[in-house]
Amino acid sequence: MIQTRPELLAAIRDRFAHVDSCPFQGPRVFFENAGGALTLKSVVDTSARFAAIPDNQGRDNPASHALVDVINRARADMSVLMNTSSGQFFAGESGTELLFRMIRTACVNAPKGAKIIGSSIEHPASRSAARRWAEIAGLDYVNVPHDDATGIVTAEAYREHLTPDVRVATILHASPVTGMGMDVAGIAAAIRDVAPEAIIIVDGIQHAAHGQLDIDSYGVDGYAISPYKVFARHGYGIAWISDRLSTMPHDMLIDAPATGWEFGTRDTGSYATMSDVVAYFDWLGGEVSDETDPRARIEAAGRAIHDYETHLTNAMIHGTGNLPGLAEMERVTIIGGADNAAREGLVCIAIDGIPSPEVVTRLNENGIRTHTRKADHYSGNVLDPLGLPDAIRISLCHYNTEAEVAQLLSVIKDLLD
């Protein structure tokens, strides 16, 4: 629907800061969304407004009461965005830090000799936390290999490694390397079938910007996002935890409320900017549907985002206008395959005979922002099995355009020629 309504796409782009130019570089195409999405202009305004307020939460004065109301409203807004009917939201240092905290708590509360299960496709945020705290807590770590060809891990793959003594499980919702989304609900159901007592924690950091979050349907205990990757800003992370995880013994101040998970005074502005993000999804849902219920509008926005981003990635892979797509270019390898239904707004490629950093530099020189993924501690789990030392990550969002895709293809075609 977005691709057939240029006025809507223009309205979408108008809501984001630096949509087509960089304050340091000048005009550019932004295909580095997996590294951090563009920021809503409303988020910029909200951040400045709250940065000027000297008061903190928990005091008996009008400003403090107002700040508490802002936080409570943001938590309610996030509940609508992510569809939660229980549990709690809280803010932390980053999405990675929150994954460590949730996984740590689950591991130290598990019986010694139990197991923690995760997949080789996961970002090191969850894999590192799981392996570290498995060793400290006396748990056995079980690795579920992902499929190298498709870049995904399935519920069936998890099921092959599940045993009833699994007490902690981690799932990646979408890969920042392959761009593929996982069936979180299906994987969680497989885990529950065999190990119903397991605490299941999900890394939703890469997935969140693509607009389809439904925690109630997943059957999990923890979910983390990084707001700067979903149109907000840097400096904090957001986690949702179930009532069961909330009440587990965890790091906290002496005699503090038993279900409190935040340390120190949080930035009210960070919460407020999440309300801006929710308001944006709500607005977009109203533009692409006749729904009046906020959750229904958000679901409609998610469907429209997915459809449009699929349109853009198909154009990138199969071509647009008279430009050949990446799949038609000799020497180009598309990680995860050209036609992969799990793809979420990201195409990762390698070019035979040209180091990826050189390609990224050439694209930058032509005003196109992408990113090199190297076979290091961040991406080696995906690239090493494919025999690739590096790759070029081209990550887009629903504010990108087909003309920007054409610009990318033109530069790559010239590079190969």
Report on this model:
- The chain is of the alpha/beta class and 417 residues long.
- It folds into two domains: 159 residues, Aspartate Aminotransferase, domain 1 (Alpha-Beta Complex); 234 residues, 3-Layer(aba) Sandwich (Aspartate Aminotransferase, domain 2), CATH 3.40.640.10.
- The chain is built from 14 helices and 17 strands.
- The strands form five sheets. A seven-stranded mixed sheet has the order 4-10-9-8-7-5-6, sandwiched between helices. Strands 13-14-17-16 form a four-stranded antiparallel sheet, with helices on one face.
- Strand 8, helix 8 and strand 9 form a beta-alpha-beta unit.
- Helix 2 packs antiparallel against helix 10 and helix 3 crosses helix 10.
- The longest helix has 25 residues.
Key descriptive features of the protein:
417 residues; alpha/beta; Aspartate Aminotransferase, domain 1; Aspartate Aminotransferase, domain 2; 2 domains; 7-stranded mixed β-sheet; 4-stranded antiparallel β-sheet; 14 helices; 17 strands; 40% helix; 16% strand
Helix content: 40-55%
Looking at the structure, what is the overall shape? globular
- Alpha-carbon distance between the two ends: 35 Å
Strand content: 15-25%
What is the annotated CATH architecture of the largest domain?
A: 3-Layer(aba) Sandwich
Protein name: NifS-related protein
InterPro entries: Aminotrans_V_dom, PyrdxlP-dep_Trfase, PyrdxlP-dep_Trfase_major, PyrdxlP-dep_Trfase_small
Organism: Roseovarius nubinhibens (strain ATCC BAA-591 / DSM 15170 / ISM)
Keywords: Pyridoxal phosphate
